[in-house]
Structure formats: C-alpha cells, structure tokens
Amino acid sequence: MVRALILLVMSIASAQVSAAQQGFQSPQPGTMITWKYEFGDQTYIRLNEVVISGEDFIIYDPDIQRSSGEAADYIVEFSGVHSQSCDQPLPGDEDRAALSAIWPLIPGASASVRTGVNSAYSVAEPVKVELISNIEGAGDALSVQTAYGEAEMTLAVSPVLGMPVQVVWASGDKGQVLEVIEPQGGLSPTDMAGQDLGYCSELLE
User: Fold this and answer.
1) pLDDT at 164 over 70
2) What backbone phi and psi angles, to 5 degrees, belong to 20?
3) Closest CA to 133 of 178, 166, 175
C-alpha cells in the first residue's frame, strides 16, 4: 500500500514538471497568433503567422493582412526572446548559443546579443497571461526583462508555445496575445523561396 502511494505521488510530481524546465521548442509553421497592441489611446489588432521554424528560431509575418513580402516585413525571433526584422544582420553563432543557453527558462538566467543592436535578456518570475489556445499551459509564462538598444521592455514568454505572449514597454504601451491557433499546413521553405527574406535567407542554407 505504501509503495503504491509513493508511486502515485511520483507520477503526479512527474506530470507537474513545468514546461519551463524543458528546452526551447519553436512553434510550427502555419501557427496563427492574434496580438492586441495598446499604444496610448490607440488599439490595434494584428494577425501573425509563423512561416518558417528552425531549431532555435522562427520567422513570421507580423501582419499578414498588410504584408508587402519584403524583407523588412518579416521578423525572425531567436529562442523566444530576441526579435528583429529580416533586413538586419543576424546574431552571430556565439550570440545564438547564449540565447539558447537560457533554456530551460529559470529565474536568474540571462543572455546578451552583441551583433547589431546590443540587447540583454534576464529571466525573472513566473506570470500568468490569459489567452485562447488548445495547448495546455499556454498562458503559463516567465517574465523576461529586456533591454534592446535604448528601449526597455518586459516580455512574458510561454515555454510550451516557445514565444512571447505579452510585451510591456517602459513607456506603458503593451501588447498581448489573444489567441493561438495550431497550424493547418503552413508554408515550407520551398513556398517561401520567392519571398525577399533578406538576411533571414541565410537560415535556410
């Protein structure tokens, strides 16, 4: 009886291991993300789509309704924290390795990027973000204090989604994911071959 109880407790504990204790897993191509942004008294809704994903990065179209297909329209995001447009030089290998090393997301972990705009990331406390998703624990995130050049912001990064679900700028402006829809196919690198991905095309070589 005692042995059975011990096994039960162990199984429950194993089931409760946080996704934050796992390595980075990028969202799949075709994932659709609805963001709501509040800048002052203005509110904007933007529909994003993940178009390509790799071991430590995703490339997405941040506004599929207004995209022109040029490199500046695409965003690459490394390890769920560092984002930049595809018309900017990519982080070097050391920078990417440093970003990958903050996973699993544990408070106190930190990384910096020296290529292009200097940026720094520091994992802080767990936070909860309300959003719609069929993925269990999608709104369970960790706060990541971010300095991107002179801009300061706080990200809420969801380990199970592999991406930020909230951003709050030091100015008070903010953005939050309202809904995440799992892929129904999505684009492959072949589908994107005719698009101007700028520096991001290096990630497909």
Assistant:
1) yes
2) -65, -15
3) 178
